[in-house]
User: What shape does this take?
Amino acid sequence: MVHFNDCEDINYCQRLVSEALSLKEDPYKFELLGKRKTIGLLFFYSSLRTRVSTQIAAQNLGMNVITININQDSYKVETEDGVVMIEDKAEHIKEMCAVMNQYCNILAIRTFSTLESRQSDFSDKVLNTFIKYSTVPIINLESAIRHPLQGLADMVTIEEHKMISKPKVLLTWCPSPKRLPQATANSFAEWSNLLDYELIVAHPRGYELDKRFIGDAKVVYEQDEALQDVDFVYAKEWCSTERYGKITNFDTDWTLTNKKMSLTNSAKFMHCLPVRRNVAVRDEVLDSNYSIVDKQAANRIYAAQAVIKTILDKS
Amino acid sequence: MVHFNDCEDINYCQRLVSEALSLKEDPYKFELLGKRKTIGLLFFYSSLRTRVSTQIAAQNLGMNVITININQDSYKVETEDGVVMIEDKAEHIKEMCAVMNQYCNILAIRTFSTLESRQSDFSDKVLNTFIKYSTVPIINLESAIRHPLQGLADMVTIEEHKMISKPKVLLTWCPSPKRLPQATANSFAEWSNLLDYELIVAHPRGYELDKRFIGDAKVVYEQDEALQDVDFVYAKEWCSTERYGKITNFDTDWTLTNKKMSLTNSAKFMHCLPVRRNVAVRDEVLDSNYSIVDKQAANRIYAAQAVIKTILDKS
Amino acid sequence: MVHFNDCEDINYCQRLVSEALSLKEDPYKFELLGKRKTIGLLFFYSSLRTRVSTQIAAQNLGMNVITININQDSYKVETEDGVVMIEDKAEHIKEMCAVMNQYCNILAIRTFSTLESRQSDFSDKVLNTFIKYSTVPIINLESAIRHPLQGLADMVTIEEHKMISKPKVLLTWCPSPKRLPQATANSFAEWSNLLDYELIVAHPRGYELDKRFIGDAKVVYEQDEALQDVDFVYAKEWCSTERYGKITNFDTDWTLTNKKMSLTNSAKFMHCLPVRRNVAVRDEVLDSNYSIVDKQAANRIYAAQAVIKTILDKS
Assistant: This one.
């Protein structure tokens, strides 16, 4: 079965980028493809872009959309095997999965990071349990360690804006007052490698991303050095790796500014949003004409639509 | 007007079961029947299966669906007559009903049990107030004392799996750490009687269900005795009747196990879900091939669709 | 761009009333007009009538509807410019607006009153920021100071029920245990003036509405005097102006009763709902046959539909 989570097949990833660009030209070309089919969107965590863009993507393909906020609309969910369920969790993920399989042709799921245990987060338990038990395709709408629809949308955006075939792409950490997962950074790195960009990763010491995602990317501990001559600056907040899930650094020298952007090769500025203005990045950058954050958000529709279309084509 | 709540008309109930089985064969046969019509789903209490299955059922018939979580999306609702509304409840059920009647062709409502006063719960006030004031048909999506769409779905499931025309059906209490209403048990008993199954009800002393629902069913206070030779085991948690709404018994000897299931006539195992694994029933039963809990969940769609279709046909 | 907020163009307002009355006759006449278009409904505050009626209005015109409860489904939103966003608000209104502009063809937004600062509320910041930055039309679903879809629906209702071309219309304050904004009262007064009714406004001293909205309406501080010979009584709770946002008066002599209604010219009783029975108005009035509150609620559909249709026609 075709799930959408990790992306080991480079050809497949490149085809998805092409498909998304093609769907953007004509979003309604396949508007009967998903007729009489239902996609279930399950949110264990709040969302704006993911929720709306996936819904529009599915509707553009003629699907019915059912959205469930697990913690508000439904019951708390147990994810461990063999538990005697006497606590507050009233439903086991096995039943939730089996039931939603009866109701939906595709399930798209946003899970969460604990930010407590690196090992636990890296096992990506909730998502993988759905993948294990589901009899219908699963789409990862952001899990403990990956946000692949964001990764795909980012690649679509770079493809639209790049001036050379193999652009120099910087993924740089930026400060946040709130502990945030590494999922988006991981997926951006993973996809940049799949698309064969020249990837540089910059962050303070202790914030190293996993090799599994960054591969052979150059790692730089000085942001100004990393910014030299890059074509794209992708800023993202993430929590410490050394003291996993904590904030050990709030160094506002890592806040992106016009001065810093001037070190680049007239780079475009990217961020997945939401973003804390004047913390992660200054107003002057977000409001400049080299910011393409809204283009990224728009491309979330076509990324999701390419993935859903591919799944419908094969099922 | 055709509401869907209690089911005193046996012929009508049997026709609904047939209709549901027939719709399951061809869910889109009447996909234009509800065109330009809207069903409003009002939830005073959280829900997963009911919410999703009713939405799909209505969409299969071409209806628009509007879902309202009363306590999150809207205002708290006063249900008493003549009250001077100076407390936190900003809207009276009379206005909510009158307004939703302007907007929807059918209203489907999930109310709740207080689990405080048996008399109050058995008056089924919120549902009956909607039925009293509504100018459009009301569907009960679970009230203080009934869960008739679950009852209907359960009958559809038994009809699909039974080997003899009048199967022996056991409704057995099982333990829960959380106080739960008697509504699902009541409806299962009520519908089993309507369909003329041989019904046995098993529970500890003090957990008696109302005669109105169980009728002449055999009541047994020993689970092992009750399990002998039955064709279906329907497990359900419910609160004490003697000390209404309380948990007076948490006897895990009532937890369903493979050993207990071996006392039956190779019975199928049923539960409406959500279920607490290894409290109500052991993993070994839920994960066995004689568990049909996912089939029950799937049949919720066709039960709801049969009810909505019948209402649309008559209006 | 055609936003829908204040209504300075009298001809435009009268055309909307006519359009709404015409759509009520044949709601599905333009059911393909909004095909492949999406309206986003953003709620910063809870709602029942507004949510449901706007959704139905958009669906009657063939649009897709996406509803977001900002505080539940998404992130808290910063509305101030230039802020260093280190507090709990994770997204700036500029990004939310830019992103939703990518996803929706029309945005309809319910904001809120602070009820803390009259100056701040009267600047209608959140709504005006959306209007300032949006590249798609904005519909005001109630802001700090206006509720124009309610105003329009109220005018439609008066047009349906009036016996003379220029009816005498009373907007009267009534008591509430909860602090409530002036928005609905403002819009009722503003629209009554646009439609050239004879408007009288009654309230205790200290509860004066802004001249911007009531214009040259007669202001009366005695409710019984104000009720004489009027054709419509529009009751509404609102907070003090003198001590802005507070409740300085809970005088139940202002509660509407049958005796008070008998002072009128057989007036119809109107209220936007939700209403606290026996606080704002007695049961005897709400349950009488001269109450037309449910008609007002029904007309919310056609008011919204007229506005959306006008926007679609021009875009």
Summary: The mean pLDDT of chain A is 95. The longest strand of chain A covers residues 38-43. The radius of gyration of chain A is 19 Å.
